[in-house]
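FORM 7B: Structural annotation worksheet

SECTION A. Query
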Amino acid sequence: MFRQPIAAIAALIVFTTSPGFTDTAAPGERSAQYVAFPKGYDMPAGFDYSDGKNPSDADWAAGEARLLEFLEKRNFPELRKHAWQIFAGMTSPTEGGYAVWESWFTADEVYAGPAKAPAATLSDRRAGIHGARQFGFGLTGAPEPNPGESVAANVMFNMPVRDHVWTNALFKPGTLKEINDGFNANNTPLLDRSIPQFPRDAIALKTIWSVVASEGLTILPVWDGELDQPEVKVSPPYPADVWPRCVAVTPDPEIKETTHPVTCNRQPVDAQVIGLDSFYHFRITEAELDAVNKALGPNHKDGTPETIKVGDYAILLGMHFTTREIPNWVWATAWWHDRPDQPPFGADRPDNVIGVWRNYMMNSGYSRDVPLAVDGGPATVWNPYIEGKYPNGMRSNCMSCHVRAVYPRLDPVIEGFDMCGALPVLRGEGSLPLDSPALGSRTRLEFLWSILLDTRAEHEDMCGDS
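SECTION B. Predicted structure
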């Protein structure tokens, strides 16, 4: 995003939205009290909450069976409906007006263990924003922060995840080595080499943020389609700073013009003017400022204001979210769009997705293989703001990446192109079968990279290597 001075433009019309859950009134003082995933949003799948009862273990097992039956029958519309309901439940408003998921626990809170005092306010949680890990790895594989990026991330977990991590001491350096050494000593069968399974109501998400200036226009590139070329063997990187279309975002409700000439990724365009209230957002206070600046680093490339200050706004560009309802987890990703009702990612949005959340598209995945991607290969599920800048990023799949979260980390497939064994992008069950000999001396981490990356001892590098 790039900033345009307000003095240079006439009155503009902001993008009209339904009432949203934006946080503008003393957000730093709002309590961070935990709010559970609400009832009535198809979790567990097919469960009827009308009698007021809570689901039993048998109900969760029935929900798993229902989703796996949909998958076996290739009933992808029903599977998308379920993913939309998860999204609707997570983004529903709390009494404080913010989304349910913002009351959940950051990775910092979870992996600090129970001895650390929990966050007291939303600002405490938002101060957990950091540089997006994917963006900290280039072709060299070096895990240093990558300065000049325009997105920041925050990883969040609901209470079932937190409690499972704490109960099984998965927050402690050394636990993974102890588990893996035990498997080796006992000749544990390959398919049993896993940390204890998370409960079926476990939910994890990764949010992606950028910044809009408190005055003037901030230029935001918008992703407009699949753009994959089936005939190309490796899909090229497609980062936001080469996308051909942009919108101009303003927090000023007095601006009345619908379009304005701007520079979009070095090209002159007439950009639609969009109001800040079409995004889920919060106003940056002193409590979050340092974290946001550190996350984005200097010399922002894709559009954040040159200088981020108190009073600017953090906007949610998108999120990955995953639930443990099936053994391989349910995977989905959402991203903001100014034309959010277009197929195939927005036309089926249900009515109970409300407020600003109706401006987000969604894709979901329940398999590493199906449905087939546009190139005829295994399934893809990816977010343009997260994976788009990678070679083959447009052919990536959340599940195929996260299945590679193991301890000790996998050996690099290509030297210098690594990210703790996650790169290069691979797809399909065949890319790493669960009975692969490569897993014979390792422990699967239940698809959660954070268990590898956030539990390392001080003498270990980011990937848990001594």
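SECTION C. Observations
DSSP finds nine helices and 15 strands in the chain. The mean pLDDT is 85.

SECTION D. Sign-off
Analyst initials: ____
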